[in-house]
Amino acid sequence: MINHRNNDCKPHAIITQNLSFRILKLNANLLLILLLLAPLFYSHAQDLSTISGQYAAAPLEEVILDIEKQTDYKFYFLDSWTRGITVSSSYKNESLNSVLQSILDNTTLNYYILTSSKRIILLENTIVYDELPKGFFGNEEIVSANSNSQDRNNAPPPTFYNTTKRTKREYDVAKIGKSDPNNLQETYLLTGRAINSKTGDPIQDLAIRVKGTNQITVTDVTGNYKLELPAGYNILSVRAMGIESTERELIMFNNGNLDLLMEEGLQQLDEVVVEADAFKNVEEAITGSEQIDSENSKNIPLVLGERDILQVAKALPGISSAGEGAMGLNVRGGKTDQNLVLLDDAVIYNPQHFFGIFQALNPFTTKGVDIYKGAIPMEFGGRLSSVFDIRTKNGNEEKVSGEGSIGPVTANLALEIPLEKDKSSLIVGARGAYADWILRSLDDEALSNSNASFFDGILKYHNKINEKNEVKATAYYSRDAFSITSDSLYNYDNRLFSVRWDHRINDKTNSALIVDNSNYGFGIDFDGETNTDFNLDYSINETELKYKLRTLLNDKNTLDYGGSAKYYSVNPGSIEPDGDQSDVNSQFIDNEQAIEGALYVGDEITFNDKLSVNLGVRYAFFAAMGKSTQRTYENGMPKNESTVQDTISYSSGENIKTYGGPELRLSTRYLFTPDFSVKASLNNSYQFLHTLSNNTTVSPIDTWKLSDLNIEPQKGYQASLGFYKNFKENEYEVSVEAYYKKMENVLDFKTGANLFLNENVETQVLQGDGKAYGVEFLLKKKSGQLNGWLSYTYSRSLYRFDSEFSEERINNGEFFPSNFDKPHDVSVITNYRFTKRYSISANFVYQTGRPITYPIGTFRFNNSDFVAFSERNEFRIPDFYRLDLGLNIEGNHKKKKLAHSFVTISVYNVLGRNNPYSVFFVTDDGEVKALQSSIFSIPIPSITYNFKF
Asked: What GO cellular component entries does it have (predicted)?
């Protein structure tokens, strides 16, 4: 009901209802008469009333009653409009207009004064129009009720909306903003956040389409979205995989916010493996990004039936490894140390178990990973090639649930425990291996006599404190222990924790404060037959504080800005005797310390529906600190014992050397059509950490080295250009992307280098240039009985180490292939679903054999035989190819079951291809012979039982 304080008075007929600009139960002629007569009743200029008063959190209705007492005016409104609104202001002899504008400023209410009848009409969201739009009666005349009124010929017309148009509504019609008669526009900006109503998690990649148009947007990683909508009535169609599709009606009166609380969908999904939103690949401005969902990777047949998002990543264009069983990933021709791998914002230095065969991540607690290999977001830095942003799921906040698996090598269990319903939860995951039997079946005599085990555990706490505050905390630990020979036990471990506080400052600004710590270490315990027993250790530790913000400045600009600070502490290595009988001497290398920091700011600029640009700059800073002893060498001379010029001792905390500089981040997207776009990016970056290794593949004894007085940071520059097209209502995705990357100060080892436990490691390494370039092709079918993808990459990765001194020159100073240079890389992932319960999967991989250095002859010198080797990496081992098959059987889908099951029966390397892992050379009776070792040279069958409750 409309509230009017005087019972003798009735509501004036010109009042509009609260849903829109509509004027009800008036025919066009009556409307015309009322508008023509409006100036007789309405005039701000004639009002001479003044108001005085002091209000401290006073209800708006009380303030209105006070104004009525001080004037002859009566107010008309609905009680529900003013409920919960308070006023805290003071006025002294101020005009009625200024007081009304003040008390209604931060509300959705407008007002209309009829001076002659002493009435004030409040209106929710809308305003009263005293001028009809052009062509309202089918002609071009403009019927004006006030010649002095604002000229609204170019403003949007009033919205006439029939409340009975849609009889069934899941949600009420949303009213956004309130009309401003001095700033009427044809379009307004809608912003908001999509949230899972069950878990409270933000929903990423939710597709929001303006019904009846081709206008589409998707939510970002924090669930935020923005849309420019026409003034007046709109319908949004909202959908995403695993989310119940719905429609939302809304009326745009001005810029405003609408959060979308979404329900989870219960329908059976046909999509498998890597799944991105239907429009994200075309619409976002970022080049070279991929997304893998852990749940949807379960149908891909991998070795020993383990679900593994890092192995799936290798099937995507531009991502590979040095070989089967090699640890680490090579992205767009970069080294394994050039990837920033994050688990819930904290760095994980070695995310793989068991020689790289398994990931060190529990698949049942892992939600997915966002991979950036082209345009890296500004908040990330410190690596040249890529970012793997791995996210852990939030626990179930309603009931205890869990998921587990039992396979031939590993057992898994994850529990989700609600702590406070619909608010906080805990998720606990544990995973262990019993891998000795598989080692005994490998085609390697040394490995067949070995043993290995690994373990990883994770704990995550999530609390949605309120609509503006959310806290997440993660703790993780993993450990590997293996013995390749009977006298040596190798072990390595990762430990990390992170705490993240997400805070919505206001409707336009979100922030995140993050504190994290990471530690990686390895050790060797040697127990031999002689008195040479020892314990060897190495570790790197980092602690980081990061604060980032995202502000929606307006409908054209979204600002990202923030900063981070990180402290490193590295134990470069130590060796101690094991037992009193050991003859080994203790040796300790001085710890390394450093500080790394960054500040960044960037703008996501939307010029129009077709063109958007992400432009930003990140300033990176690094300072190596004491306590330390550093050498200086003669300028222009090789770094060796004979060229040492001075030895400098630095006290604890003293600055040794400072590096840094700006990093440009630029990416742009142009939409030719809603399903076809072109993107380009350009960026540069600094990397202040290096790995020291003289192995062809990453091993647990590789060490991380900080930049210092003699080892400079690596620098990288990358440009990329890509075309992206969707077909057949987004069922198919096609993309072609080319890139060129230049690198400076990359590390490699000198021939015969001794890297570990070396106090002057700079004398054993070289720093040179690198370049990588390639073209990546991806064809993906996302739905239907047959789905999957085909990827092909042509790429080259080359390095050059040139100097006027032969000891610092490799291959005569010419570019040569890196150890992981593989020009041709093809992956085919397919899944065919017979029914909702039965499907088969196949995985085929082909790669060019990686480079190798061969002996090409022998010679005799001083009565001794020597081997002459080719130029470094001049030859290649045989090409690699492998076919895997899998049968997936889901249990029945009855709702009332103790647990739901999923069985995977797979055969890895069906063809029994004896793919070489490495090629090495031995001398037998004076003859040099080439031998090869393989990891899996026979078909490996497995069966894995998964259950979920």
From this structure: cell outer membrane
**Is the domain covering 2-124 a CATH 3.30.420.40 domain?**
no
Q: What is the pLDDT of residue 570?
A: 93
pLDDT tens by residue, 331-341: 999 999 999 99
For the stretch 80-83, contacts whose Cβ atoms lie closer than 8 Å and that sit 24 or more positions apart, written own/partner, are: 81/18, 81/109, 81/122, 81/124, 82/109, 82/122
User: What percent of the chain clears pLDDT 90, i.e. is strictly above it?
Assistant: 32
Q: Answer yes or no: CATH 2.40.170.20 is held by domain 280-948.
A: yes
Helices (H), 168-289: 280-283
264 touches 243 (CB < 8 A): yes
Are 331 and 774 in contact, with CB atoms under 8 Å apart?
no
- In angstroms, what CA-CA distances link 475 with 366, 478, 565, 569? 13, 11, 20, 20
Strands (E) across 300-385 are located at: 319-320, 330-331, 339-343, 346-347, 352-353, 358-359, 366-372
Rounded CA separation 707/767 (Å): 12
Q: Rounded to an integer, what distance in angstroms lies between the CA atom of residue 326 and that of residue 935?
A: 10
Report residue 860 as tokens: 């005799």
CA distance 373 to 371: 6
Beta bridge partners of 733: 726, 780
Residues 635-644: contacts with CB under 8 Å, at least 24 apart: 637/805, 638/803, 638/805, 638/807, 638/808, 639/710, 639/762, 639/763, 640/763, 640/807, 641/763
Sketch the domain layout of the chain as residue ranges: 2-124, 174-262, 280-948
Handedness of CA 147, 150, 156, 162 (dihedral sign): negative
> Phi, psi (5° rounding) for residue 113?
-105, 130
What is the rounded CA–CA span in Å between residue 291 and residue 733?
14
Using the Cα atoms of residue 59, residue 60, residue 65 and residue 66 in order, give the sign of their dihedral: positive
Q: Report the DSSP pairing between strands 216-218 and 224-230.
A: unpaired
| CB-neighbour burial class of residue 298 (10 A; exposed 0-12, middle 13-18, buried 19+) | buried
**Nearby residues of 83 by Cβ (< 8 Å), 6 or more positions away:** none
| 12-26, 141-155, 294-308, range with the lowest pLDDT | 12-26
Between 674 and 599, the higher pLDDT residue = 599
What distances in angstroms separate CA 63 from CA 69, 101, 115, 537, 679, one per listed residue? 10, 13, 20, 74, 56
Q: How far is CA 507 from CA 290, 308, 548, in A?
A: 29, 38, 16
Question: Residue 761 — left, alpha, or beta (φ > 0 → left; ψ -120 to 50 → alpha)?
Answer: alpha
Coil vs helix vs strand at 305: helix
Q: Which residue's entry shows tokens 């093809």?
A: 826
Instruction: Name beta bridge partners: 706.
Output: 689
Q: ω into residue 627 within 30 of 0, thus cis?
A: yes
Asked if residue 233 has pLDDT above 70, the reply is yes
Q: What is the pLDDT of residues 616-638, one digit of tens each?
A: 999 999 999 989 999 999 988 98
For residue 148, how far is the Cα from the chain centroid?
Answer: 55
Q: Which residues contact 474 (CB under 8 A, 6 or more apart)?
A: 343, 344, 346, 392, 458, 459, 460, 461, 496, 497, 498
pLDDT at 779 over 50: yes
Pick the most confident of 148-162, 505-519, 746-760.
505-519
Higher pLDDT, 189 or 14: 189
Residue 164 pLDDT > 70, yes or no? no
What does the angle CA 918 – CA 920 – CA 923 come to, to the nearest 5 degrees? 165
Listed in sequence order, the DSSP H helices in 71-166 are: 79-82, 96-103
Question: Are the C-beta atoms of residues 324 and 915 closer than 8 Å to each other?
Answer: yes
Give the tens place of pLDDT for each residue, 312-371.
888 899 999 887 767 788 999 999 999 999 999 999 998 988 777 788 889 899 998 999
Question: Among candidates 474, 19, 87, which has minimal Cα distance to 249?
Answer: 19
pLDDT of amino acid 785? 86
Query: What's the rounded mean pLDDT across residues 375-399?
Result: 92
